[in-house]
Amino acid sequence: MPETATLFERSAEIRARNPLFGPNRLKLGVFGLNSIGCALTLVPEAYRPSWAGSLAAAQAADEAGFEAIVPYARWKSYVKGNVHHRSSQVMECFSWATAVAARTERAAIFATCHVPAMHPIVAAKQGATIDQISGGRFGLNVVAGWYAGELGMFGVDLLDHADRYAQAAEWTEILRRAWSEEEEFDFEGRFYDVRGAYFEPRPAQAPAPPIMNAGGSERGREFAARFSDLAFVMFESSEPEAMAASIESARALARERHGRELQIWTPAYVVQADSDEAAAAYVAHYGAECGDYEAADAFIEGMIETSSNLPPEVLRALRLRIVEGGGGYPLVGTAETIAARMEELSRCGLDGLLLSWIEYEPGIRRFAREVSPLLAERGLRR
Ligand SMILES: Cc1cc2nc3c(=O)[nH]c(=O)nc-3n(C[C@H](O)[C@H](O)[C@H](O)COP(=O)(O)O)c2cc1C
Question: Is beta strand 193-197 parallel, antiparallel or unpaired with respect to 185-188?
């Protein structure tokens, strides 16, 4: 342990109090408040990022008892040839997370970090600082990157898929050691040469804040199994047996290959209305009718070029769902319908849902009023 007395807190109990490790059977997070959210739509009410609007929505999620607030990392528009596209509007994750941490009480606050865009010691030190500011509520979403255009701004190339995850493995090992070891350490690898790494304050959570990763390819899933506390599945089918099998396979990979227990989450979009028909009609309006297909196609082609996550034909078939909610799982209908779908996902073994809305703050508040009590009745959440 460090010899000097410090006013900074650090303990395993603080980590155990992180709501991500709390008792709710189905955990909830809100995704994408630092940018344009997840739907790719041109309707005028679509979420546009501002500090005030994102804070109001983050506070609504915090008050509603959500476990996590997760921004996404993007450095510029991914629509090639259109730098002014709305997807360019992204508040930087660590600075946004710091401010949100200071203005919320309960939820875990994540930053998302592109491995090639930041040295792991910088990410570790920033994360440790946010962990202190938030009283042990920080978490990091580690992403290997997929859009070469944004990485060019750093003068780095997008590595081929295997090397991207080889670099991410070194990066995350350094991050984890920088957070958890109590003495200086050296690391020499293919991508990093780290000498005498140690800093204070340490993170409040001991041994380390939680790590999230949403890699979907075999390599990405292997990386998540090895390093993360939260991993993601994307469902190709909404049949319960198929969803349960995909959740179990992500869990089994971590357990059998690495002796680790993971939470398995999926991204989902919420469209709540007074009737199932009204909710479906609104999705058809902002999605099929007013979708931002320029952005959806740029996203799909970018993924096909650089990731081996889903086969091209599967990705193209997901075009409408990408428009409607970034490819997430649809939670569309009345409060009753949404609660029933969530119960089904929980029965399939899912631990958490990372949610998005078209209009976040009113959407979260309505969800808290009408869906949360139904989830409590079903024993999914307190
Ligand atoms: C919930 C979720 C969050 C993600 N967040 C980001 C992000 O903030 N920035 C980014 O570049 N990629 C993000 N991704 C993309 C993944 O990190 C990953 O690159 C993608 O799923 C392709 O998988 P692969 O890397 O295993 O090929 C996210 C994916 C999901 C499902």
Answer: antiparallel
Q: Does a structural domain hold residue 6?
A: no
Q: Is 1 part of a structural domain of the chain?
A: no
Residue nearest to atom 18 of ligand 1 (CA): 215
Domain residues for 96?
A: 12-377
pTM: 0.97
In this prediction, residues 165-179 reach a mean pLDDT of 98
**pLDDT score recorded for residue 313:** 79
The finding on whether 235 has its CB within 6 A of some atom of ligand 1 is no
Query: Which pLDDT value is given to residue 314?
Result: 79
In a domain? residue 2: no
Task: Measure the CA–CA gap between 355 and 338, rounded to whole angstroms.
Answer: 12
Number of domains comprising the chain: 1
CB-ligand 1 contact for 354 (6 Å cutoff): yes
* Crossing angle of the two packed helices 335-347 and 360-370, in degrees rounded to 10: 80
27, 33, 34, 72: which to mutate for ligand 1, most atoms within 8 A of CB?
A: 72
The predicted structure's pLDDT at residue 4 = 65
Tokens encoding 111: 């930053």
- Residue 303 predicted with pLDDT over 90: no
The first and second tokens of residue 84, run together, are 């002014």
Q: Report how far ligand 1's centroid is from the alpha carbon of 215 (Å).
A: 6
Q: Is residue 355 part of a domain?
A: yes
Average pLDDT over residues 63-67: 98
CATH number for position 199:
3.20.20.30
At 357, is the secondary structure helix, strand, or coil? Answer: coil
Q: What is the pLDDT of residue 1?
A: 54
